[in-house]
What does this fold into?
Amino acid sequence: MEDPARLRWGTEQRLEFIEFRLYWDRSVKRADIRERFGVSVPQASADLAQYRELAPENIRYDASAKRFVPADTFEPRLLKPNAERYLAQLRALSESVIGELDTWIGDLPDVGVIPIPARRVDAEVLRSFLQAVRERRSISIEYHSLNDRRPEPIWREITPHAFGSDGLRWHLRAFCHIERTFKDFIISRCLRIGEMGPPAADAAADVDWAAFFTVVLIPNPKLSKGQQATIERDYGMIDGRCELRVRHALLYYLDKRLRLDVAEQQDRPKETPIVVANRMEYEAVLGKIKY
It folds into this structure.
């Protein structure tokens, strides 16, 4: 039996594809391999034969359906099934972020996703930021903030070093040459890009980005015992809690996104099913972070 680690990359990809389809779609055909990888019929047949040799307990041929299906003894050999990745691809497909050829999913289920107004990110702006981060340079931007002291867009210099997301929008983590501190700049609010220059700060000096805090989450105690057990399963809690290691610079966004700031005051606990167990330490860190 051939060792999967020694397979050529192209062959390995096709064998992983076979296993992906067997696991998620519960069937695979020669035509699937041909259409996805552009190989010949003999090559697709050879790939299926090689997979059967590699994992004979995983696959059987269904003559009535004229396709290969997973055997009752199926156990993934080449892939580690990831439900979050699968669902992320479904979401990306439904939002036209990727096309069907960008995923191995074959039998697409009907999917509905709540539409969220997209934050506009210009490709050229993003490319310039990527260059500035890679080359460790400063960059001039025309930025329109919501700061009452700066109601109109202004040109400013920043030294970026990382990207962050709160799940709804992307930020550029950078040293602000005006305020002389590290802060977040929402990429969609960058109107124009100017010249690059020497950096004004080193990324290592961004202590809020480098430091982490472990947030301990538990079910809202205002829920019934049965409801708390459901929340424990929802969030994959162990011994009634889950721990999230979060950068200090992103803690504020976690607080707002999960509604942790109002969870204990909310009189409808089903709307805030998780709360922070280490609240005192959590608020102490939040209070020290510069935004």
Observations:
- The longest strand covers residues 154-165.
